[in-house]
């Protein structure tokens, strides 16, 4: 073997080792989730028998309502973000109106503001609107904050589309809404899917804002629900089983939509 072959093999070995290290926490999560208290105390880092499947039953009964809450919160949020972002990005990309560029730069300037700086003003707005301890207190700020990056990406993508295509559609009598729904949206499916996945990830894992806005534990999403479960549960097997169950929706989402996700990232990198 020549020097180049050894160099390539060493690089692959390093990448393989890093890949294995990445999966070690997930493997340990699964191992601990099947243990009872005695097995956890005596053989914490190894596989033990019998496997206690009842840990998953107990965890499911404790966190299922929080998972349903997260589905509702994330689902409404991502639909709202995508609809508002597409409408705003299309207007900023394909229509002409006064101060268009200034409005666009004002919108994307919000990307430079750390989200932690907006917590107190947002909380004040939620109190004044009387939507405290209400899912509207989550949906509103999530949709308002999530659309900024989406507008930035979609506006760049919409601007790169051929003008002749829009002119042909208008000559056929299509209005702006028809053009957006029938032409622009189908062409933008990969990038819209990617933005939807990123929005779901950020919303699903949000922790601080639900604690601030929601007083009722029955309305909390899964991150806060896991904290509540941690405070109640002393059995680490059931606790880790709850962590494993809560990760399943996101793992399935990425597994089913990974191809579209990669296509959207590639499309966005080429068009922007």
TrEMBL record:
Pfam family, one: BPD_transp_1
Chain segments annotated as transmembrane: 12-34, 66-91, 103-127, 139-158, 179-201, 207-229, 236-257
UniProt family annotation: Belongs to the binding-protein-dependent transport system permease family.
GO biological process, one term: transmembrane transport
Residue span, ABC transmembrane type-1 domain: 67-257
Major place of residence: membrane
Protein name, per record: Glycerol-3-phosphate ABC transporter permease
């Amino acid at each position: 073997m020549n020097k180049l072959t050894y160099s390539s093999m060493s690089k692959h070995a390093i990448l393989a080792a890093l890949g294995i290290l990445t999966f070690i926490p997930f493997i340990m999560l699964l191992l601990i989730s099947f243990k009872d208290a005695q097995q956890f105390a005596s053989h914490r880092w190894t596989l033990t028998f019998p496997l206690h499947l009842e840990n998953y039953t107990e965890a499911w009964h404790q966190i299922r309502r929080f998972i349903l809450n997260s589905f509702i919160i994330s689902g409404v949020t991502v639909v709202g973000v995508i609809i508002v972002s597409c409408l705003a990005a299309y207007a900023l990309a394909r229509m002409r109106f006064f101060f268009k560029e200034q409005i666009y730069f004002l919108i994307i300037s919000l990307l430079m503001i750390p989200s932690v700086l907006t917590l107190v003003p947002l909380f004040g707005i939620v109190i004044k609107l009387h939507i405290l301890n209400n899912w509207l207190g989550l949906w509103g700020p999530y949709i308002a904050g999530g659309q900024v990056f989406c507008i930035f990406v979609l506006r760049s993508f919409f601007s790169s589309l051929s003008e002749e295509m829009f002119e042909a559609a208008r000559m056929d009598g299509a209005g702006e809404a028809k053009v957006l729904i029938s032409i622009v949206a189908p062409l933008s499916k990969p990038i819209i899917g990617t933005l939807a996945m990123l929005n779901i990830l950020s919303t699903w894992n949000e922790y601080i804002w639900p604690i601030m806005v929601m007083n009722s534990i029955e309305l909390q999403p899964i991150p806060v629900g896991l904290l509540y479960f941690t405070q109640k549960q002393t059995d680490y097997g059931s606790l880790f089983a709850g962590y494993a169950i809560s990760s399943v929706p996101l793992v399935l989402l990425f597994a089913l939509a990974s191809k579209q996700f990669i296509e959207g990232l590639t499309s966005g990198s080429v068009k922007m």
